[in-house]
Specification:
Two copies of one chain form a homodimer. By secondary structure, chain A is mainly alpha-helical. The first copy, chain A, is built from ten helices and two strands. Chain A has a two-stranded antiparallel sheet with strand order 1-2. In chain A, strand 1 and strand 2 (36-38) form a beta hairpin.
Chain lengths: 224, 224
């Protein structure tokens, strides 16, 4: 198809598509004439993936480029792709070196061994976790570690569901892409669900003004 | 204390502190002389909260301003503060109106009623969830809805743990701040844990190269 058709199908403006091609996110179309290229299903699919990671996953173009590069690597081990995608979800790398950070790191190391997780403290996600715990204890919320295992149970449950889903994808192409989609979009999904569950839990706990109280009513009704 | 001392204690540069004051994120210090202000514990605490939301929560200054405004509102109902904090975690508001979006919205409505969640489809988090599901089905991952309830179970579990933690905070001041911290930093925590659980789950499933395979080894070893 022509670039115009690709744009119509995906809702992505032609200049944006050309930008993605320049940035190497999207392979260029097959030249059918000096100034005309043909795009196929693969382009459409890739374009939708880019938009999903961008709009829903909240990733930056450069981050998406890294993930797609891993996705397109000749022999791309699943772990590798999963890792690249997951790392892009990491927090700003502002490492502090105070007592809280040290304590948080050992809490995370303890969690990993206690849960028997086949990973290592050097994992970026472990670093993000330590950073978060350290920030909490600096805020006087060090007691939040009490909920650590409840979070871990939930995380394991979600990870199992994700992998079970990935397992069901037959073609490896699908599987690896499924991992990227699941990692990034699944994150957005869990985040949204947690916020919904918060509204429900707090409505039950502090039952103030009935359903849908507060949480985003403004935004929900469009004034935000 | 002087602004220099506040900066030393929190690791936030003086110009940054002044910027936060100008932006209304941090109340100005008490003038002790025409060109000197005194800052107290409250300033230090607020400054740490700002940094946590910024560095760990990945929020923007403007978003933090909204959350702090709700936090400082004279009679700030907990639901309201929770809502403002939660909404700031929402995805880009790119609403599409195709078949996938409509289908996703009804899936979410079904989920909310099935789980008996005291919320409403108009909740921004519900909109984020629909948007995510729609993006997934556009990518041919519509089957991901199979894991919806596994995610919901996990989200409920985490929400219960969060609220139980908040309940334990005695002072209301603490409690409301605890909600903000829990909502934003808890999100970063769950995200990091989910990624760790993924590494573990995929290591067990595809067992390729042992522990810490792939996921962020580069970043972990500092080349990223």
């Amino acid at each position: 198809m022509r670039i115009g058709e690709l744009s119509r199908r995906t809702g992505v403006p032609v200049p944006t598509i050309k930008y993605y091609v320049r940035e190497g996110l999207l392979p260029s179309g097959e030249l059918t004439s000096p100034n005309q290229a043909a795009y196929g299903e693969a382009h459409e699919r890739r374009l939708r993936l880019i938009r999903a990671l961008l709009d829903v996953g909240g990733m930056k173009v450069a981050e998406i480029a890294d993930v797609l590069e891993a996705l397109d690597a000749p022999e791309r081990p699943l772990h590798k792709v999963l890792g690249v995608a997951a790392d892009r979800l990491g927090g700003a790398d502002v490492e502090q070196d105070d007592a809280e950070s040290a304590a948080a790191r050992s809490v995370v190391a303890g969690l990993i061994s206690r849960r028997g997780w086949r990973t290592h403290e050097s994992n970026p996600a472990a670093a993000d976790l330590s950073r978060t715990l350290a920030a909490m204890s600096r805020l006087g919320h060090g007691a939040f570690v009490e909920v650590l295992d409840a979070y871990a149970d939930a995380a394991e449950q979600v990870a199992r569901a994700d992998l079970a889903y990935v397992e069901r994808r037959v073609a490896v192409e699908d599987m690896v892409e499924g991992v990227v989609v699941g990692t990034v979009l699944g994150e957005a999904m869990l985040s949204a669900m947690r916020r919904l569950a918060h509204v429900d839990a707090s409505a039950r706990l502090f039952d103030a003004e009935g359903p849908e109280t507060g949480t985003g009513t403004e935004k929900g009704t469009g004034t935000d």
